[in-house]
Amino acid sequence: MVNVDNAAVLEQLGRILRSLGFANTTKLQRFLSFVVEHTLAGRESQIKESVIGAEVYQKAAGYDPRLDATVRVEATKLRQRLKQYYEANPGETLRISIPKGTYVAHFEHAVAEEARPPVVNTVAAKANRRPAWLLPAAGILASAAVIGLVILPRWPESQPQRPLPRLRQLTDHGSYAAEPAMPRR
Question: Of 47, 110, 128, 168, which is most buried with the most CB atoms under 10 A?
């Protein structure tokens, strides 16, 4: 954890709790306040799921976090709200987070905007990237075009010429000189 001034952390906590993303979320506000204040007081060992369930969510004495996922679900919501807060407020110099796998608050100084690497929109980057099948398909089409334009027109010439079948007359109407026609009825 970064060495930070407690007053600065509490000031940052106040800004977060007053933000629109945390408006009307009393339990998430209490959850975040609980973990930040316990972390600042050096009581990280007391920040456990069962303690948060009892202290923040007023769970009964027999509360079993293995059977009731309230704290885990709320922690996921809290992490998402914090992420949204910092995306909406990129100029914040002090960041509060709760890393996955723990409920202990983490404090860090934000890197100045100029020093940050550019954010790459992965959705747009994927949309602009050519599909993997496109290059092989273009090669196949080019090969088919060469075959169609160069080889196929010459193909009949390269085949051995067969003589045309000899036609022979099947009927003998030697005395009848007219063109064949349908009989009248």
Answer: 47
